[in-house]
Amino acid sequence: MKKLSTYLFLILFSFSAPSFADDIQDFEIEGMTIGNSLLDYMSEEEIKENVGFVYEDKKFTVSYYNKSSEIYDMVGIEYKSNDQTYKIHGVQGMIYFENNIEGCYEKQDEIEKEISSMFTESKKKDWGILKLDFGGEGSTYRPITFDFKNDHRMAVDCYHLTDTSQKNNLKVTMTSNELRKYLKLTAEPADN
After folding, report:
1. pLDDT one-digit tens code per residue, 120-132
2. What is the pTM of this model?
3. Average pLDDT of the residues of the chain
4. CA 72 to CA 171: how far, in whole Å?
5. 183: Cβ–Cβ under 8 A, 6 or more apart, which residues?
6. Which of 2, 60, 115, 125 has minimal Cβ neighbours within 10 Å of its Cβ?
């Protein structure tokens, strides 16, 4: 009887897992995911004290998560500027790779494999190495994106910056469909 119940558990679990496995909200950066309230992680005072960027039209704001992290060197959270619930529309974790873009690419490939195994139903694309409009002349980045059925996006990007005042970095990001449409990012291949 124990074997039968074990088999039934495994069968039921294997059928239910895919319904959960391809929801971006099953992935977290520092415990945060899109759709949650930033107030669950920071007080309103902390959110306001750690504003790092407000988009030009003031529709979205980025606050930095000021708690220490064992994984990321910096964590940024995007939310609508006028939303008093601070609903999270984007989360990005950044890891610096000063003078080590190859190390960034290795870590990116490692994370890409992990995400691919978690989200088998998402549409993955490796964009190759693209030109970057900031970070110094000749700066590039390599994005790998995962698009979900609800148009949310997860990305793992390596940034190679030629401006020595900035550090090469890897970003793991989650973006809601609304923020993604708002950003309307374009891509242009690099010449190298």
Report:
1. 999 999 999 999 8
2. 0.79
3. 85
4. 9
5. 175
6. 2
Q: How far apart are CA 123 and CA 126, in angstroms?
A: 10
CA dist., res. 47 & res. 155, Å (int): 24
Six-digit token string for 188: 């242009």
Q: H/E/C letters for each residue in the chain?
A: CHHHHHHHHHHHHHHHHHHHHCCHHHCCECCECCCCEHHHCCCHHHHHHCEEEECCCCCEEEEECCCCCCCCCEEEEEEECCCCCCEEEEEEEEEECCCCHHHHHHHHHHHHHHHHHHCCCCEEEECCCEECCCCCCCCEEEEEEEECCCCCEEEEEEEECCCCCCCCEEEEEEECHHHHHHHCCCCCECCC
End-to-end CA separation in angstroms for the chain: 63
Give dist(CA 113, CA 191) in Å, integer.
27
